[in-house]
Amino acid sequence: MAKFRNIIVHDYARIDPEIVVGILKNNLNDFKGFAKDIELIIGTNLEEWKLFNLLNPNFKETDENKLPKLIKRVLQIYGLDDSNENLIIETYKESREENKLVSKPQDILDAVFTDYIFRIPAIKFAEAQSNHQKNTYMYLFSWRSKLGSIHGLDIPFVFNTLSNRAGWFNPGLTPETEKLSMNMMDAWTSFARSGNPSHKNIPEWPQYDIHNRKTIVFDNLVRIWGDPLKKERELWDKSSLWSPFQTYD
């Protein structure tokens, strides 16, 4: 019988970050290598936060004048240094333009929320686990529906539950979506069987490490991306929130 591995998709409980950081700071040595025997796939969607805009009945797109104030407010809410809002905006704008992503004010704000709540914690998880467990793999899901590459959109692809009735979390069954779904489902199945998610229909999926940070990108073209959106990641690495967890023994 196949031995199934632990697979974390990208759901995080919303807990006061100050409490979590405080616990980890004071007990970091106790957690090192605690889950070293667990092989891992972890990843996020490119535009996770856009879903939560849709759920807000009072949502209005921000503009260039409001963006600095909103970024500053976000930093204050999470107890971060709120003096670098312009650096954050410029870094995200530059990064998105370099990677041919939309860089309108709302997209920058969405990217900041996506990184803070989803992508950066997932990266930190992968960094920590990869130091103890070689079978650690990271993905970025960037396929877009009409609503974007939103939170939860990857689920019907992984479990092949696409249908002809399209909705928020189900883009519908087409030759395009069916092919991507089969590629993802086969990767997860291969990982469950052997601890290695690679298969013949996708590029070789490298193990994740802090030196190359090779990540598979699931889209119409499945590809390997070394250190995706590096400038944005490095910006968070320097923040007071994540700096205590940069070194893993």
Structure description:
- The protein has 249 residues and is of the alpha/beta class.
- It has a single domain (17-59, 106-245), classed as Alpha/Beta hydrolase fold, catalytic domain (Rossmann fold, 3-Layer(aba) Sandwich), CATH 3.40.50.
- Helix content is 41%, strand content 8%.
- A 4-stranded mixed β-sheet has the order 1-2-3-4, sandwiched between helices.
- β3 (214-218) and β4 (223-226) form a beta hairpin.
- α4 (85-98) crosses α5 (105-130) and α4 (85-98) runs antiparallel to α8 (230-237).
- The chain starts with 16 loop residues before the first helix and ends in a 12-residue tail after the last helix.
- Mean pLDDT is 86; it is low at 1-13 and 244-249.
Write the layout of secondary structure elements.
Blueprint: H1 17-31, E1 40-45, H2 50-54, H3 67-77, H4 85-98, H5 105-130, E2 136-141, H6 155-158, H7 175-194, E3 214-218, E4 223-226, H8 230-237
Give the percentage of residues in beta strands.
5-15%
What structural category arises from helix and sheet content? alpha/beta
Total strand segments: 4
**Which CATH-level-2 architecture?**
3-Layer(aba) Sandwich
What structural keywords apply?
4-stranded mixed sheet; Rossmann fold; alpha/beta; disordered N terminus; globular; 41% helix; disordered C terminus; 249 residues; 8 helices
Tell me briefly what this model is.
The protein is of the alpha/beta class and 249 residues long. It has eight helices and four strands, in the order H-E-H-H-H-H-E-H-H-E-E-H. The longest helix has 26 residues, at 105-130.
